[in-house]
Recover the amino acids of this structure.
């Protein structure tokens, strides 16, 4: 492990330089990795592992035709590397539970009966295990239970892998039956192309993840954007101007500067007027939102948020409800303006894209 100073606090992390891909392959050379679910994280993790030379199969119900067809389109072959969930679980020695949190409740019985002594049960979210009183996902005592949680969407996990950058991931061991759970866990984290791995626990992972998604990463971000856009529109600004000042400049310029060298560097590369205003108003936004984040964390830690997820997401009509909610966002003036703005961006030429995907550090393209 490498010891890194994170703002005065030292942490141990695992990098690809220390734990090489060759070592990961050696650790998992006798394993069959069964990826259960080809929805969000499944495709990215499965394809990355496959491209990195691991033995991977897919478990996906044919009932969900779109996901089954997507798996076939991605090169998984029915009867060879693509199976129904139960058959994949039976064939696998490492079972990756990558269906949605709510769906894990319904497939758990089908998975559990095929877990053999010494197998590994893998998650990318601590949800089902930490809130097992609600989910009823209770692993047998004679298997390893491990977690690798990429800090990004499945799309980003795949894109960053192809670029060679990788997505940072947390990892944790909940149950070590074989004495090799941590080794298997780290090897899988390297196998999916993690930029680096940092240790956590199942509980800490799910608490931070649920807070982050509902907060800065998605919920708070969307809410702040809508609030500012509406204020600008009500004061006579055009949709184009309101969207550019709310979203476009953030996503196409400023957040990229933050990514490169941090918030202070972004500030230092903006005008003095922008710097002064941001520094003056930052404490006000923090004061206004801190109570909301405190309330949010309490709701996550208490299990209130998971009860909400399981209750709503597990309903038969949930996909219809979700589509209506997402359509309301998509059809709002702000995001219609966003589509128009994106359509006006200069198009990247195909030959430039080709250049950006060559030489992927020994990884196959797909």
């Amino acid at each position: 492990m490498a010891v890194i100073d994170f703002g005065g606090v030292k942490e141990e992390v695992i990098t690809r330089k220390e734990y090489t891909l060759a070592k990961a392959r050696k650790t998992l050379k006798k394993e069959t990795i069964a990826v259960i679910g080809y929805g969000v994280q499944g495709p990215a993790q499965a394809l990355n592992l496959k491209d990195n030379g691991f033995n991977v199969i897919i478990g996906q119900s044919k009932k969900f035709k779109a996901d089954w067809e997507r798996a076939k389109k991605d090169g998984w072959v029915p009867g060879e590397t693509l199976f129904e969930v139960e058959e994949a679980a039976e064939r696998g020695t490492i079972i990756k539970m990558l269906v949605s949190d709510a769906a894990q409740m319904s497939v758990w019985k089908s998975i559990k009966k095929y877990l053999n002594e010494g197998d590994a049960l893998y998650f990318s979210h601590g949800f089902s295990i930490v809130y097992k009183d609600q989910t009823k996902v209770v692993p047998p005592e004679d298997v390893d239970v491990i977690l690798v949680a990429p800090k990004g969407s499945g799309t980003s996990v795949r894109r960053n892998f192809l670029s060679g950058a990788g997505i940072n991931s947390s990892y944790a061991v909940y149950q070590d039956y074989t004495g090799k759970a941590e080794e298997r866990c780290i090897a899988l984290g390297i196998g999916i192309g993690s930029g680096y791995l940092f240790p956590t626990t199942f509980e800490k992972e799910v608490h931070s993840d649920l807070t982050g998604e509902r907060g800065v990463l998605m919920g708070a971000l969307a809410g702040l954007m809508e609030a500012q856009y509406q204020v600008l529109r009500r004061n006579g600004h055009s949709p184009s101007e309101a969207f550019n000042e709310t979203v476009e400049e953030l996503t196409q310029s400023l957040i990229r500067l933050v990514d490169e060298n941090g918030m202070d560097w972004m500030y230092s590369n903006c005008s003095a007027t922008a710097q002064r205003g941001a520094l003056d108003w930052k404490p006000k936004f923090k004061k206004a939102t801190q109570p909301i984040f405190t309330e949010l964390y309490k709701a996550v830690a208490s299990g209130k948020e998971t009860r909400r997820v399981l209750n709503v997401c597990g309903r038969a009509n949930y996909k219809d409800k979700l589509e209506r909610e997402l359509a309301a966002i998509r059809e709002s003036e702000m995001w219609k303006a966003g589509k128009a703005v994106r359509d006006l961006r200069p198009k990247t030429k195909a030959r430039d894209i080709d250049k950006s995907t060559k030489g992927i550090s020994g990884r196959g393209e797909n």
About this structure: Confidence is low (pLDDT under 50) at residues 350-366.
